[in-house]
Every structure is written in structure tokens, then in C-alpha cells.
Amino acid sequence: MTVSVLLSDTNDQEVQEAVAALPGWRLEMRPLDELVETLDAMSDIRAVLLTTDDPTILRAAVEKSHERRIAVIMGCRDETARRRAVDFRVEEWYRSPASPEEIAARIHTALGRVAPTGAEVAERAERVERQEMLYDALTGLPTLPVMIERMRGAIRKRGELVVMYLNFVRYSKIEEIYGWEKLDAVLETTARSVHEFLDDSALRSSRMMVGFTNDDDFIFFHVPAPGVPAASERLITELASRLERHVAQRLEEAHGEEIAALFDIYIGSSHVYYNPKIRLERLIYRGIREAANAAKSVEERERARKVSDLKATLRARSVYIDYHPILTTDTGEIFGYEALARGVMRSLRSPEVMFEVAAEADLIWELSRLCRSRAVEGMASWLTDQQLLFLNVDPHDFSDPTFDSLEAADPERVVIEITERTAIKDYPKFRERLQAFRDRGFRFAVDDAGSGYAGLGSIANLEPDFIKLDISLINSIDTNFIKQNLVETMVKFAEEHDAMVIAEGVERAEELETVKQLGVPLVQGFFLHRPDLVPTFGLPAARAPR
Questions:
Q1: By three-state DSSP, how is residue 118 classified?
Q2: Which domains are assigned to the chain?
Q3: Of 221, 308, 365, 371, which one has the fewest beta carbons inside 10 Å?
Q4: Residues of the chain with pLDDT under 70
Q5: 105 Cβ contact partners less than 8 Å away, ≥ 6 residues apart
Q6: Quick one: pLDDT at residue 534?
Q7: Residue 47: Cβ within 10 Å count
Q8: Sheet containing 71-76: which strands, arranged edge to edge?
Q9: Is the pTM of this model over 0.90?
Q10: Is the CA virtual torsion 473, 479, 482, 488 positive or negative?
């Protein structure tokens, strides 16, 4: 009988038992440095099981396996490893530790997923296409057409349906700032926390879905139980408030206060009554539109309240500054601080939310003046004589008639960080404005390089002293070779033009080690400093003013 070989970098007891349970299989364990050579040398390998965290070895082994149409299974110890498995497109993965039964099942499933050819490819593509039209791969939620079919009978029997539309605002902002990987993780957390809430609420019999795959808003169908009245507007409003607090808490626990501060949820509802003369699908789609419009109305009322909060904030100067440290990568010494403005009111805690509201209310200049003033006021208390203050400024602020009067006790210790919420339309004129500030001793940084308007053209035109790499470039850089190549190129470019690169958004030890190896001289992020929490890298969590 032909023997099938599972090649692995581990011979853990669970893996041995899993292979023993597969008829006609044997386990071959090899050290990491022999894996790729063994793949070339042995002809009877049908699957490879990898548990290493080394991305270089992983990529080489996966590529060689796929060249030979060998299935790859990864044992993932944490979320980073899972995302790496997805990025490398392995056939199967499991969360370590796992039982022998699960590992054996993963091996069996992986064999059926090895890249086919010809007609098999076309057939599988059609099957996947149909599947993805029915279920959202990220959250596992069914799409609207599936749920209509599942609940058709119950709706006809009850004769009514409550539709709720959950509009999660600023999720696109999370993707813009942090990258799609972070938004995917946030959506997973959101879906889980909404499920938790529903299971413990008066709407536990509700069914949740997405309108279509990759949607970031959710829809509830609630068919009341026999003899139970439909949920009232008052109950829905009460539940919406509790749901928002629950999801925000889970987001803060899983992703931090910065992400949670961007979270807002607006819920609208509508009541659909069954009418046999009208197609059920048409009734439901009308109900969804009504619920979505109702959610929009709630959002507009909240925006009006936030404008009022902002005006009160400006009158009372109720903005505080979180001086977020920028560290020297090699030594961990504090090089300087970025002044991050926060609203005292919880509704305006996030700077993104504050400036979004200010833009709608035409109060950008007033808010920017307050933030700059607060930041400069704290320099004497927070910064030593050698440390720099990075001050966020939008190009639009240069048009403010009061901006030229920007004062600091020592301009050479202030870096004006160009944060491009708006595009620079006239570079020659803008450079003239910058030169006037350079002549006074100020230096400049380009923020969010690699995203939005802050591309290579902007860097070349502004000739900054510092280049701050966008968090979307740094997130999971340890597992993404394209990001590593981009950052390495940017470091070389900066060195050739007497500038320094700052890696923003370092949240994990692996990211810190990677940017260090790539030669990035300065780093910043929650792995190095998280306000009010015990930090790592030898930095105090918070330092009281002197």
C-alpha cells in the first residue's frame, strides 16, 4: 500500500496521534533549516504541517509546497499567526493547542483544497462564488436573501416583522487610519459582541445578517413569539443605548481606547406587516430602507448635539493634551512627544471625531488654535531641554490669518507635523509659507506617509525633516514582505535627503523588532506607551508635570 507522508517541523504528541489516526500515513519531522530541501527530495509528501513563527521559512515552505500541489496546514498560537496563515493562503489552519481529532480533520480537509487544475478550477470558482454570495466570510453572518428564505414561513404565520438597521459610523475611518486588517478584526469583535448582547436581551429570538458580503452594517429581523407583542419604539431605543455601551466596551478591551473612541452606532427600526397581495421580498426591502433612513435621522440628531458640545468645548477651552512619546529605536530613549488633542467631553474624546464635527460646523480654525495653544502651553512642564514637540497642523490652517503668529519659547524644538486632512493644491505657494517658518527655526514632518494625500509627491515637494510612516504600513509588517520592502526603501530615501523616518502605530513586539531591523531610527505606538497603563520598553506610563 502506498504510504502518504505528513512533513512537519514538530512531532508533538497531538500531531503523532493525529497522523496515527489517518490510515496509510506516517509522520516525518524535520528541523526548520531542512524543510524546503526535504520537500524537493521526498516524492511521497502529501501534506505539510507547520508551527514555526519564522515568516521567511514559512513563506519558502508554503511556496515550495504549492509548486508541488502539496497541502499546507498551520498550527497558529495567536492572532498574528492566524493572519499570517491567511496571508500565505494555506489550505487549513487550527488554533494551538488542538486535539488530535481536530488536527486529523484539518489534514483531511486540506487535502481537498490543494490547488486543482482545469475543469476543477472552474467548478470550484463557481461554488465559492455562490457561497460568498450567501454568507459573509469574515463574520460568518448570512446575507439578506438567505435570511428572507429562512424566515419566510415565520413571517407569514405571525403576519408582522420588526426590522432594525444598525449603522456603524466611522468604520471606514478605522480602515483609512489603521488599514483593512484592523477593520476586519474590529468587525469580528463587533459581530461577536452583538451576538453576546442579543443572547441576553429581550430580542434574543432576533436573527442578524448583513445586507451583502463585506458589508459593515448589520440588519436584525425580529419576529415576535406567539402571544408576545412586537418590540416597541421605547424598548428599541433602550436596547440601542445598552448595545452601544456593550459593543464599545468590547472594542476597548480588544482594540484599545483609540478604536473605541471612533465607534458610534445608530439604530433605526421599521414595522413590516405581511400582505399576501405584495411580494414579501418587496415588503422587506421597503422596511429595510425605512429602518436605514430612521438610523440616519438618529445620526443627524446626534451630530447636532455634538456641534453644541464642540461650541461648549471651545468656550471653556476643554481640551487636554496627551503627550505621546517618540522613541529612539535602538535605545528606547525619548526623542520627543507628539501633542495629541483630546476633548474633555466623552463625545469628543477622539481627535478624529472632534475635527470631523468642527469641519461640519465650520469651526476648524477655532479648534486648531485651541489645540495648538494647549500643546505649546505644556512644553515647559512635559519636555526636557533636548526633546522636540511634534505639533499637528493641517495645510488648511496655514490660511488662518492668526497662524503666522504661532509662538513657542524655542521654535527649534517644535516640529510642525503636516497632517493632510485636505489636499495641498498650490505647492509653490505652500513651500513659501513653510520657508517663512523654517527661517524662524521651526522644522517640519509629513504625517501618515503612505496613505491619503501624503504620497511620495507630497514628500518630495515639502522636503520634510521627518517622515512619519502611516500606521497601515506598520500594522503586521512582520508578516508582510511588501510592507517591509516599502519601509526599507523609505528609510534609504530619507537618509539620502537628511530626513528621519518615524514608524507610527507600533503595537506589538514583532513589529518593533522588524522596523528596528529595517533601520527605522524612531518609533511611536501603544506598544511603547499607552496612557494610564503599565507600558513596556522601559517608559513610564505617565509623567506628572514638573
A1: coil
A2: 4-111 (3.40.50.2300), 144-302 (3.30.70.270), 317-523 (3.20.20.450)
A3: 308
A4: 1-2, 115-133, 409, 420-423, 450-457, 530-546
A5: none
A6: 32
A7: 25
A8: 25-29, 4-8, 45-50, 71-76, 92-95
A9: no
A10: positive
